[in-house]
Amino acid sequence: MTGLAHVRSDFPLLEREINGHRLVYLDSAATTQKPAQVIDAIDDYYRRINANVHRGAYTLAVEATDAYEGGRAKVADFIGAASPNEVVFTRGTTTALNFIAYGWGLSHLSEGDKVVLTIMEHHSNVVPWQLIARHTGCELVYLSLDDDYEVDVADLDRIIDDRVKVIAVSGMSNVTGAMGPVQVLSAAARRVGAIVVVDGAQLVPHSPTDVADLGADFLAFSAHKMLGPTGIGVLWGRPDLLEEMEPTEGGGEMISDVQLYESRWAPVPHKFEAGTPPIAQAVGFGAAVDYLAKIGMHEVQDHERAITEYALAELATVPDLTVYGPRDVSRRGGAVSFQLADIHAHDIATILDQYGVAVRAGHHCAKPLMRHLNVPATARASFYIYNTNEDVDALVAALHESRKVFGLA
User: Fold this and answer.
1) What span, in angstroms and rounded, lies between the C-alpha atoms of 87 and 234?
2) Which CATH number fits domain 40-293: 3.40.640.10, 3.30.450.20, 3.30.1330.60, 3.40.190.10?
3) How far is CA 127 from its chain centroid?
4) Predicted local distance difference test score (pLDDT) of residue 154
């Protein structure tokens, strides 16, 4: 058993059986399971407090506001933000990245400017910039990958010039697990006065993250990928950039005054949080942060590296299996994509499910990367704190059975 095996009992869903087998949940890169502590916090909010925030003077409204803003404060502390006001609650990573592209990009980019991306980006960190390029005429430039599936920075001095205004990079690939060279790209951005946008959807849940050390100007991530509920995420930004950004949604809550032909915005972060916010989700998010902080993010990272190292070694024993991603576990996370011979990933996932093993199959919202790998799709096993070596053993055993089903053994 691995170091955090004792936490499994906190996750009710992991007690299920699938097709007569113990559930082996290996899809945490898509969404994580929720511990009882998070479920209970959300349940308690709805049972005891439920009210709208920032608007009422009565007891429930005050308690709801305190709970909502308390969740913000916990998240801010978790990522080392200087103030809770640097944390904007959004619907998730995708919304946060769109807020940056539209709220900052539309007013700061123009024809002749360049936005630098990488081949390994999730669509959420590609499509918004494509849309902004249509509006502004800016150019998109892509960094490729080296032979170890990591972003190739060998030619950075030539690519990063005075025309570059934005560098947008994933902190960790959701396909290969490769870490993005955030600090290297941040240093290059500083030399030309560009900003750095980090898609932290896979980074923040799995690695100790301090925005002061990261070197980024914006960071986006989601609660549901780090034990929290769906429907809430974070846009963290440097205070000066958040102040100069325009809101991308208008309505209640985000204004300080509305007149017939113009309005004034509420202070940051509220000017980006139009309408009734995800109150119960913020409470659950805070509980998830508490849970991870109690374990310690260094422990989370060490556990994941141990599982990944074991998985890479065991998967290497499966004939006809190709694994995509760095071999050095200190340079990657626990998302492990693979291909079995020429069998489609969906067929592999279907067979694995018969043995209770849940993996993701498809292009993982990373079609440019799939084309770079020259595959239509991959199967992906992704690990988190509740996974054990026994889960890896179940995956490998099911893959051996899959070989038999497809006539490879």
Assistant:
1) 6
2) 3.40.640.10
3) 16
4) 93
Q: According to DSSP H, which parts of 151-226 are helical?
A: 156-159, 182-192, 211-214
CB 117 within 8 A of CB 143: yes
Which CATH code for domain 5-29+297-405?
A: 3.90.1150.10
Predicted local distance difference test score (pLDDT) of residue 409: 79
Task: Evaluate whether 90 touches 233 at the Cβ level (below 8 Å).
Answer: yes
Query: What is each CA distance from 301 to 6, 172, 204, 294, in whole angstroms?
Result: 16, 13, 10, 14
Q: CA-CA distance, 170 to 153, in Å (whole number)? A: 14
Q: Copy the structure tokens of residue 33.
A: 């399971």
Distance of CA 142 to the CA centre of its chain: 20
> Where does CATH 3.40.640.10 sit in the chain?
40-293
Catalytic residue among 73, 140, 241, 365: 365
- 138 catalytic? Reply is no
Distance CA 220, CA 25 (A): 25
> 141 and 113 in contact (C-beta within 8 Å)?
no
User: Per-10-residue mean pLDDT for the chain, 409 residues long?
Assistant: 81 97 98 98 98 92 97 98 98 98 98 98 98 98 97 94 98 98 97 98 98 96 98 98 96 95 96 97 98 98 97 98 97 97 97 98 98 97 98 98 93
Measured from the Cβ of residue 276, the count of other Cβ atoms closer than 10 Å reads 13
pLDDT value, residue 2: 54
Give the DSSP letter of residue 145: B
d(C-alpha 391, C-alpha 278), whole Å: 34
Q: In whole angstroms, what is the distance from residue 95 CA to residue 263 CA?
A: 23
Q: Does the reported pTM lie above 0.70? A: yes
- C-alpha span between 248 and 246 (Å, rounded): 6
